[in-house]
Automatic annotation (TrEMBL):
The gene is ogg. It holds the Pfam family HhH-GPD. One of its GO terms (molecular function) is oxidized purine nucleobase lesion DNA N-glycosylase activity. Residues 119-285 form the HhH-GPD domain. Keywords: DNA damage, DNA repair, Glycosidase, Hydrolase, Lyase, Multifunctional enzyme. It is an enzyme of class 4 (lyase). It catalyses: 2'-deoxyribonucleotide-(2'-deoxyribose 5'-phosphate)-2'-deoxyribonucleotide-DNA = a 3'-end 2'-deoxyribonucleotide-(2,3-dehydro-2,3-deoxyribose 5'-phosphate)-DNA + a 5'-end 5'-phospho-2'-deoxyribonucleoside-DNA + H(+). Its EC number is 4.2.99.18. It comes from the Archaea. InterPro entries: DNA_glycosylase, HhH-GPD_domain, HhH_base_excis_C, OGG_N, Oxidative_DNA_repair_enzyme. GO terms for biological process: base-excision repair; nucleotide-excision repair. Belongs to the type-1 OGG1 family. This is DNA-(apurinic or apyrimidinic site) lyase.
Amino acid sequence: MESGHIDAAAVRGPVDLQIILESGQTFLWRRVESADGTWFRTVAGTEVIEVREETGGLTWRSTTDAAGILRRRLGLDDDLPAIQSAFPDHPVLEAATTRYPGLRVVDAPVVPTIFSFILSAQMRVDRIHENVTALREGFGEPIAWRDTTVHAFPTPSALARAGEAELRDLGLGYRAPYIEATAEMLRDDDVALNEIAASPYEEARAALTQLVGVGPKVADCVLLFAMDFDEPVPLDTWINTAIEEHFPDAAGNSYESTSRAIRDRLGPNPGYAQTYLFTHLRTSGDP
C-alpha cells in the first residue's frame, strides 16, 4: 500500500471533500468508516484509492501513487478563487459560494459516468449510489484491499454480456435495457468517445445522445463531470427552478434555447456556476 499527503498550500483555494463527492456530481465514491476514521473510497481502473480531509490538506492511501489521480479527479488544479470571482454578481450565487467555498467540479472517468447518469433518471442520490454499487459487485473485477474486497466498475463488455434479465435482477428496472444497449454500443465502439471529447460543445452533446438512455441532460452531466467541458448546464429540476426564480429571462422554449440563454447568464464558467447553484438549492430546499 502507498500513501501520501496533498498539502493545502499546493492547491489554489479551499477544498471541501465531502461536498465535492456527495453533491451529485459523481456516484463513483463511497464513504467508508474504519477504525482510523472516515475515508472516501473509489476504484480508478483497477487501483483502489482512499482519501480523507485533514488539517492542512488531504491524506490518501492506495494501491498506487494516487496524488496525480486525485488532483485530476477532485479538480485540485482549478484556480477556484478566480473561477468564483468570475461568477455573475447575483445573490443566489453569492449565497452558494459563501455556503460552499470549497466546492470543486470533478473530473470522473467517462464510461462509468455515462452508466451512472443513465441510472440517475427519476432516482434519489442514495438510490443511485446503491445501483452503482450493485453494478460493481455484480459484474466488476474483484480487488483485494486491506481486509476486504472491493470491485472495479464493470467494463461495457461485462455489462453487455450480463444482459437485460440479470441487470433487472439488480433492481435497475426500466433502466436495465438502456444499460445493456449502451454497453453494447460502447463495446463495439459505435459511439467514439475520443472524437466526442474533441468536438465543439453542442456537437458533443448531440453525439452523446446517440447512446440509449442518454438525453440532453444526461449528456450535459457526462460532458461537465467527465469530459472536461466548461459549458454544460444540465437542466434538471433544481436548475429549472433556479431559472424560474432567479434568471427568468433565460427561460426558452426548448432545452437547447434555454441552455444557450442560461450559459450566457452564468458567465465564463457556466458549468461551475451551475454546480454551485444545484448544490446550494438541492441542500437548502429553498430556491
